[in-house]
Amino acid sequence: MASKSLKNLTAPLSGNNPVIVQILGICSALAVTVQLKPAVVMGLSVMVVTAFANLVMSMLRKGVPSRIRIIVQLVVIASLVILVDQVLKAFVYDVSKQLSVYVGLIITNCIVMGRVEAFALQNNPWDSFLDGLGNGAGYGLILVIVAFFRELLGSGSLFGYPIFEKLGLYELGYANCGLMLFPPMALIIVGCIIWAHRSFNKDLQEK
Amino acid sequence: MKFNTNSNVYIIIYSVVMVVIVAVLLSLAALGLKERQNENILNEKKTQIVKALGYDAATVQYKDVVAEAALLDAEGATVNNDVAKVFEALQDVKGSREAGLFPIFKATDGSVVVPLYGAGLWGPIWGYIALASDMNTVKGIVLDHSGETPGLGAEITTAKHQAMYVGKTVFDGEDLVGITLKKGGAAEGAMHEVDAITGGTKTSDGVSAMIKDCLVSYKPYFAAVKATAEQQVSNELNTENNGK
Predict the structure, then answer these.
(1) How many C-beta atoms surround the C-beta of residue A139 within 10 A?
(2) Mean pLDDT score, B173-193
């Protein structure tokens, strides 16, 4: 794999992360991060959608009439999301129930259309595919980090395993922080991640 | 050959072809996965029924504990006891209730499970309630929701909340009172009350109303079962007396 192509995959994980650098897709990051499991599934779903939306649109890029390209993008993205939704319903029913409308809302996730419009229409299919995969992974990564803290501090468990109960923290007087279960806490955690991320990446700091 | 990708003809043909391809793809996917999805939905309902009866759904199978599934009419008579039809009615509890059909599951030990359907704060809430063979004592309850607030209304799905219902009774004499989720906590020894959820008053009210509304439709059936049970007891007494 050429190093330039590889960069398409790795850049969105940190330096050009869609959530904490481009500040895209925040809405669903707030909604599906109460527990880790839905966050992981959501991250994977978005990865699939961004990767294949980029791939398909990049392959079609020379034939798409530019006047209706947004509509074509929407059709491609919406079909992929419906496919993902159907597959989730068939194979991981309980998770798809937890994610409920948010799977459908991947269609409106700014990351997907943003990457198609900004990258896939100008680049070859392979690079576009990697870019989509990377951006989906970058989004998923933030989701998992946020969900880790929210589930651990809010419910005292990880992937549903009651870790604090097993450690006997409740007997010591510890109580779960109910506030963590509310969407605003996701925003605050995302803020903290951005803060930590920028203090390590000086070039991202605004002057 | 070079097309003018911005000509109207090209755009129209392009959109038509695209839509047809997408439609075919999506229909194929939907048809191919449909069976599996329905199986999941069916399994979930069965699991919830088993849980309502107080068994661990991981070890106990639906078919081992439920003897019969039936649709009752408003008078409590069995209209249909085809399992497939009953589960079909469960897909739309509200609709079948309006059509005068009430699904019921009879367990092997004489207890019954009744589906619940009502309104929470943000959306529908539903579940199953199991009554012991006296048609009065709650054996267990399973509650679910689509959009109640996590940490508040959504607490109705926790085992801790659902455990409070066990052993409570829904009849006060002849009156069907259901179970009320009492704000401020259930009075000690109250047989028809459980603690409401702090910060989830509207959802709690919804659950109280749902339990009562849903059980009322089964009142004739409960009465019939009770009458049969009493008949049996008195028959047994009679035989015993006759024997002496």
Answers:
(1) 29
(2) 84
- Compute the C-alpha angle B66/B69/B75, nearest 5°: 130
User: Where exactly are the structural domains of chain A?
Assistant: 21-202
CA–CA dist A40, A178 (Å, integer):
22
Flag whether residue B2 sits within 8 Å of chain A, measured between CB atoms: no
Share of chain A above pLDDT 90, in %: 11
Q: Is B218 helix (H, G, I), strand (E, B) or coil?
A: coil
By C-alpha distance, the chain B residue nearest A66 is B6
- CB pair distance less than 8 Å for A75 and B19: yes
Q: Are A26 and A187 in contact (CB under 8 A)?
A: yes
Q: Which residue of B has its CA nearest to A176?
A: B151
Give CA–CA dist B227/B39, Å, rounded.
38
Residues A30-41: tens digit of each pLDDT: 778 888 888 888
The per-residue b/e assignment along B177-191, b for 16 or more CB within 10 angstroms, e otherwise, is bbbbbbeeebeeeeb
CA A79 to CA A152: how far, in whole Å? 35
- CA separation for the pair A155, B158 (Å, rounded): 12
